[in-house]
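User: Please fill in residues for this 337-position structure.
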């Protein structure tokens, strides 16, 4: 190393140490999370957090742990504590999301966090910061006297899921009863105005959804529809064959159609991807797809057939050698996992 470079390195280490020592001796650098912003996506029942950490040394990165607390209704009612471990760079904006079981309209949520430096290079900073202040998240709709609200509205879930619904009633005196289809369901009181119901392992009843009604005197009645989708099947018996070496005809058994009424979910789509050519095709039929064999006589084919609906994707794969024709002149390939 040239003397000048050595001197420069020495100088920068010296400056680095000075900054650290002077601040460390006076008081430990507060690497506290700050500018915490919380936004809510009520459709996805998700809270999105965004924050920064002040005082990360210039162009450095260090390992940190963020402990995040989520409370419901009041700050003292902590319902979730999560640790998020990550590496934080200078000037980085951090993100973290959380999905709530309870629809966000049902109750106010509060979020706060603290941080810890968990990095061998910065062992002097290995202590918990103070908590940030609580951020309140409120997506409640305004509620007039004697009205009833229910959430979530028109939610799409897969069969077997657990779903939490709630009703909010301004008038706490009312005796409100709720039914799923014809069966009465029993909830848990979250606060004087809010009842929540856990529906475990929901089943598919019909394409047009499952209705849940709540009613109470006087003339209060509200309903929501829960769209329960069948679980998407993996395509079965996927195979391709050709008789003329121009078109590969691929077929499969699609299994259950997962379309739901009111355009809540269309039938699942099927796409064919061939990895050697990198080509992809959206199939127009639900149980077959024709594939043009290219002029430059591709020998190996590696197809991935993917079924997809709004909730899930499922793929199967076949790999075959087109030149290995059978006695009948038909090339056929079957699923080989
Ligand atoms: C919620 O998220 C989805 C996709 O993740 C997005 O399409 C939608 O616009 C978001 N809604 C709100 C209110 O931000
Ligand atoms: C931390 O130390 C290790 C080895 O001592 C080194 O490889 C690494 O680059 C250092 N990280 C930072 C951010 O300085
Ligand atoms: C995150 O860091 C904490 C503190 O070092 C540790 O106890 C925990 O196991 C880590 N979690 C993960 C998922 O790495
Ligand atoms: C936490 O806050 C108190 C009072 O505001 C302050 O004296 C203390 O230094 C802070 N601790 C850390 C680790 O930042
Ligand atoms: C649904 O709830 C039951 C009982 O609380 C639990 O055992 C199961 O794991 C949950 N299922 C899902 C998909 O979260
Ligand atoms: C509420 O109504 C149900 C029937 O809908 C009845 O069985 C129950 O006794 C009522 N409870 C109160 C406190 O009025
Ligand atoms: C969920 O319900 C189905 C029938 O609808 C049942 O076959 C299955 O065992 C149930 N699963 C659980 C975890 O209760
Ligand atoms: C076939 O394609 C799949 C999906 O693209 C890929 O994961 C797999 O490695 C491929 N196999 C070969 C032998 O190229």
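Assistant: Residues filled in for all 337 positions:
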């Amino acid at each position: 190393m040239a003397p000048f470079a050595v001197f420069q390195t020495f100088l920068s280490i010296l400056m680095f140490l000075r900054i650290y020592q002077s601040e460390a001796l006076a008081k430990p650098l507060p690497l506290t999370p700050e500018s915490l912003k919380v936004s809510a996506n009520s459709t996805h029942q998700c809270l999105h957090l965004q924050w920064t950490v002040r005082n990360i040394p210039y162009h450095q990165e260090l390992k940190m742990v963020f402990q995040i607390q989520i409370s419901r209704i009041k700050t003292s009612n902590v319902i979730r504590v999560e640790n998020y471990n990550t590496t934080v760079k200078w000037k980085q904006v951090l993100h973290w999301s959380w999905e709530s079981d309870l629809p966000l309209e049902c109750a106010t949520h509060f979020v706060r966090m603290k941080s810890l430096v968990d990095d061998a290079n910065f062992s002097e900073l290995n202590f918990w910061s103070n908590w940030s202040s609580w951020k309140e998240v409120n997506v409640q709709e305004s509620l007039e006297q004697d009205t009833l609200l229910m959430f979530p509205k028109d939610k799409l879930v897969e069969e077997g899921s657990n779903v939490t619904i709630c009703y909010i009633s301004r008038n706490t005196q009312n005796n409100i009863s709720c039914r799923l289809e014809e069966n009465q369901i029993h909830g848990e009181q979250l606060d004087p105005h809010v009842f929540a119901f856990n529906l475990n392992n929901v089943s598919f009843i019909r394409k047009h959804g499952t209705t849940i009604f709540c009613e109470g005197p006087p003339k209060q009645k509200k309903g929501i529809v829960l769209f329960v989708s069948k679980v998407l099947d993996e395509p079965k018996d996927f195979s391709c064959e050709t008789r003329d070496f121009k078109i590969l005809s691929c077929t499969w058994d699609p299994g259950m159609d997962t379309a739901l009424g009111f355009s809540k979910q269309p039938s699942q789509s099927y796409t064919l991807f061939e990895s050697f050519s990198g080509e992809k095709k959206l199939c127009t039929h639900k149980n077959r797809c024709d594939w043009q064999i290219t002029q430059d006589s591709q020998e190996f084919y590696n197809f991935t057939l993917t079924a997809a609906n709004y909730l899930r994707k499922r793929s199967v794969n076949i790999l075959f050698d087109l030149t290995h024709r059978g006695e009948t002149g038909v090339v056929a390939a079957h699923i080989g996992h």
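For context: The two ends are 56 Å apart (CA to CA).
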